[in-house]
# Entry
Amino acid sequence: MFWMTAALCVIQVWFEKPDMGENSDVNDIEGRKNGFQSFEHAAADIVLAASFNSSGTRIVLCSADHKIRVYNIDEDNEYFLVDQWRGHDAEVLDVQWLASSLGQFFATIGGDNKFKLWREDPSQAFKSGRRFRCIFSQSPLNHVSYVSFGSKTIRHDLFLSLITHDGLLSLLEPADPESLSSWNVIDNIYPFGQHHRGTEARFRLSFHQGEGPSTNAVFAGLDPNAISLAVSAIEHIKIYRAVKSGEPSESNYLFYEMIEIQTDATINEIAWAPGCLHPYDIIAAACNDGTIRIFEVNTPHEVDASLRTPAVKAYKPNGPRRALPATMRNAPSGIGAGLADMSRNAPPREVMNSLNIKHEWKQAALLSHDEAPVWRIRWIYDGSALASTGDDGKVHLWKQSLSGDYVDFAETEPV
Ligand SMILES: *[C@@H]1O[C@H](CO)[C@@H](O)[C@H](O)[C@H]1NC(C)=O
# Structure
């Protein structure tokens, strides 16, 4: 099961894995609604986000009633409540399971300006309100709420990225990988300059999930251990690659801006397609004008570029970076010109372009969502299909056909 939409008291879950092979008929109207199942949850208020664990047998919901709820799903697709508890002192805005060999973990952000990590404590009974313990809690240095976060695992290393309402992006790694109860900030930037309070830039971020960067990017000289991250604000998406600088023994990643994608619609969410279906990268943007835009990002390169010494070696590191000083205005920040209503006085970062990998982008598809704002998108089946939901009250599943077009192959009724 992969995708849900949240109405006030119903979650719709896509269960069956449809036949994604060559014989599947995307025009099969009868088959369109098959595979979705509804379940009623106990939240007293709107569910703002939900996340399945990687085996799909457990779902965590977070809602405006300040609570977090975890359900197990048995073989008959029945849901039963594992626990519910007050997770934040405000609405719980987002939740994600984290891939970890250390047991069951997930992360939340709340309207109380907190980011929290939760770990299951099997010694506590189901429905005790104590089955999940908060093992880490952090507030932004700049006292502005977090609006989006993501996680990325490279082999056994787990990274987190958080962005605040004013656009401060940070990359974190565990200080103690055994417990995950303390984290170090390894880089901090304002990708679009510092955003003024009061206005809404809708910052979103999405890591590229996969074993390594796309094959073309590696051929173009990108370090195979690079972390790839997309960050959006208003109508812009910036693509970053984070690579280790300095000695191999130091785990010290720095963000490098590669390219900026510009569109003409306000972006509500972005999703970098996982997997390796294509040698280039694909990023989808859910837009407020009722469209989903699919962007291809490629790295044109000469044939022998992969034989070069990795580009990062040629670059002299600045030394380790620390957490931001108390005066955020003087923080290292702002690559390139900010957006119109964003601060322009932040100095550009000197390391810009030092990776020397050319990136280019194009819009590969424009999908229509009945003119209603699209709020959530998620790649499924390793990136061969995209699920979306928005103000039209439906969940759509899009699949790329052999001709390269994206076809709306399943949708639910509005709830
Ligand atoms: C997902 O949750 C179920 C139910 O608790 C558990 O049995 C399973 O191991 C979990 N999967 C992962 C990958 O943690």
Notes: The chain has a mean pLDDT of 79. The chain is about 0% helix and 45% strand.
